[in-house]
Design a protein that fits this description.
Keywords: Transferase. This protein is of the alpha/beta class and 177 residues long. The chain is built from five helices and seven strands; from the N terminus they run E-H-E-E-H-E-H-E-H-E-H-E. The radius of gyration is 15 Å and the shape is globular.
């Protein structure tokens, strides 16, 4: 099985990047995996912290192709084509806020026939709510074949927006050093 993962990986910092790196490592033992990363995850003006990047200078743990610029719709097309050209059987994405819905929703909808698209949902409803959250999230969710939710609260949020969703609940893993 050829599995593509589109999400954030190092050099982006944070728990989602670490989770994805671990997921990549686990899946690599049983299938062919390719990581697709952001070229630009957030425009600097929207990023709330000091930096989006790991600053310790350590080598990157995996080779992730940087293709998706969330602020550039032209890159949505390029990303969908790049992933499609790799001919995956499965595309795994991550969702944690509505900002990513236009870019990743587009990519999900433009995968070749026969490629299943699933999403690991960290959040369905954002912590800070806006009027556009539900339509963006609905757009994103409706482009997928199934979901992995990390807790029952996220499952409930998923079913509130998409009652017919196919999902499994898989609690967030505990990391080992």
């Amino acid at each position: 099985m050829r599995t593509a993962i589109l999400s954030c990986f190092p050099p982006y910092r944070g728990g989602i990047s670490q989770f994805n790196t671990s997921l990549y490592g686990e899946l690599s033992g049983s299938c062919t995996v390719k990581a697709f990363n952001f070229k630009r995850q957030y425009p600097e003006i929207l990023f709330p912290g000091k930096t989006q990047y790991i600053e310790d200078g350590s080598p990157l743990p995996i080779d992730a192709e940087r293709v998706l610029d969330t602020a550039n719709p032209i890159s949505y097309i390029k990303t969908a084509r790049t992933i499609s050209a790799w001919k995956p059987d499965l595309l795994i994405m991550r969702y944690w806020m509505p900002y990513f819905a236009p870019s990743q929703g587009y990519v999900a909808r433009h995968m070749p026939e026969g490629c299943k698209v699933i999403s690991i949902l960290d959040n369905v409803v954002p912590h800070e709510r806006h009027f556009f959250d539900k339509p963006l999230t609905s757009y994103y969710l409706n482009g997928h074949d199934g979901f992995i939710v990390l807790c029952n609260a996220v499952r409930d949020d998923l079913l509130h927006i998409k009652p017919d969703a196919r999902y499994i609940v898989s609690p967030h893993p505990i990391y080992s050093n």
